[in-house]
Target: beta-fructofuranosidase
Amino acid sequence: MATHHSHYDPENSTTRYAVLPDQPESTSAGRRKSLKVVSGILLSSFFLLSLVLVILNQSSDLSQENSPSSETLTPALSRGASQGVSEKTFRDVFGGSLSYYPWTNTMLTWQRTAYHFQPQKNWMNDPNGPLYHKGWYHLFYQYNPDSAIWGNITWGHAISTDLIHWLYLPFALVPDQWYDINGVWTGSATILPDGQIMMLYTGDTDDYVQVQNLAYPANLSDPLLIDWVKYRGNPVMVPPPGIGVKDFRDPTTAWTGPQNGQWLLTIGSKIGKTGIALVYDTSNFTNFKLLDGVLHAVPGTGMWECVDFYPVSTVETNGLDTSYNGPGIKHVLKASLDDDKHDYYAIGTYDPVKNKWTPDNPELDVGIGLRLDYGKYYASKTFYDPKEQRRILWGWIGETDSEAADLLKGWASVQSIPRTVLYDKETRTHVLQWPVKEIESLRVDDPLVKQVNLQPGSIELVHVDSAAQLDVQASFQVDKAALEGTIEADVGFNCSNSGGAAKRGILGPFGVVVIADQTLSELTPVYFYIAKGTDGRAETYFCADETRSSEAPGVAKQVYGSSVPVLDGEKHSMRLLVDHSIVESFAQGGRTVITSRIYPTKAINGAARLFVFNNATGASVTASLKIWSLKSADIRSFPLDQL
Model:
């Protein structure tokens, strides 16, 4: 664990990258804080017990299939914001009080995913420090070992050989020192040329100050990286003058600088309402210097969390190590905006000498332009996979139900399916996100292949074995005469304010309905909508409609989406990964992505259905479908007798 004795001896090492201790961090500081910690745990436990008792008193026996009715609950307490991180409690999107729904065991059990990574129980949020080491992919994640709500943040740890099937390992880092006693928060791994792993993470101190700390494997020869040591000189970075003590977090993976032996990394912050990325210089990962200026800043975007910075090739189809730069290279800068809880990115050019990043298009700058995902998705992080020469993206998919429901089911949040990230050579403004190829190993037998001619206002049932675990690939050919003959349609269309898939237009919506019941009283349509301006130019939107996804109150019911470039000669295409309460939707090869969380009460188990539809008024659409049922992933604890 975090305080095991290190088998790595820096005194005898020939490395020039880091000078680290050969003894673990002293725990004396942690003992000095023990009274505070115990008091906090007791207070938290009392609150949780009280909350659970209230819930259980309001609920009838969960083993019974209760009739739908609801009661009003007081909105859940704020979590995280007072400590200087993003709000971790889901707030009802419509405002007002939350309604409690009498969820049954059957409903809650169905919500748990089958092939997305999630812990066995309790709360999870940001992905941390993903890396590949000696044949294993490692994922660390923000975890509360005590409850299904945010708090007591510890680093969970899991490993995989294929990014799909996972083994849980013991905790990697726990909050046991004065510099992280209030939380071991988000961090990133940097792998040095000699194989050393430098893990930098944000700690929340005993005085609620955000500082950056260093940890490293106790035994680098261990493929599982079971034991981690915290550097005895922590913290290695503290908030600089002019930066708030709660506005300094989430160090990135480091990249090599222009000087020999130099490493650079960036940390998110803000000055007033301007989001910024600070840059630090180091040669040994224990001593850091803040460089003049900032990597980039965007006024009006607020606090930047979980900043990510990496190169993409404009000519090749493989991913790049974080230190790559030169001809044929662009750099992606991404920030998670604390103000609106979305992940924004932009593509630009990085000057390593001036240490400045400049967006290619200022109108698509970070925080005001493109988002990685237009649904429920936050705190994403990439890493370079040297095994497959690709860049892989992880993202936190939070819940959009109530805390009361999460406590009843005993867990909250999942990680997205890992996605590869490439530069879109066609638009030159977007990245392309696509599920890792390993997901295809879960496909059952041959796909269902079907072509359907959909007249305006039609919907057709697609017979599949299990509508809750699917890989759906669909393309749509819109009637050419209708498309070209329409002069103007739905100028100013917007997914969020459109009224959803029930709102009919001349050229849309058309798409796929997932997790629906037979009567369509519950359904989640994912669809395209074509609008045409007064100049006759068509603009396509990709939307996901949750407004009728559940009959239960107190869950998010909104329409997500954005415009998506559909180039000449391209059909309208989508790929949907359906996994019980989560649907990840990819349009046009991953130019636009939407992640949905849904909580149906009827469209579960054998009652779930899949449909294809065309709700346009003026155009027929031909849908071509290829659908696979997906097996469950094997996600379990590593055998303890083998540790």
Remarks:
- The helical segments are 28-32, 34-58, 105-111, 403-409, 480-485.
- The longest helix spans residues 34-58.
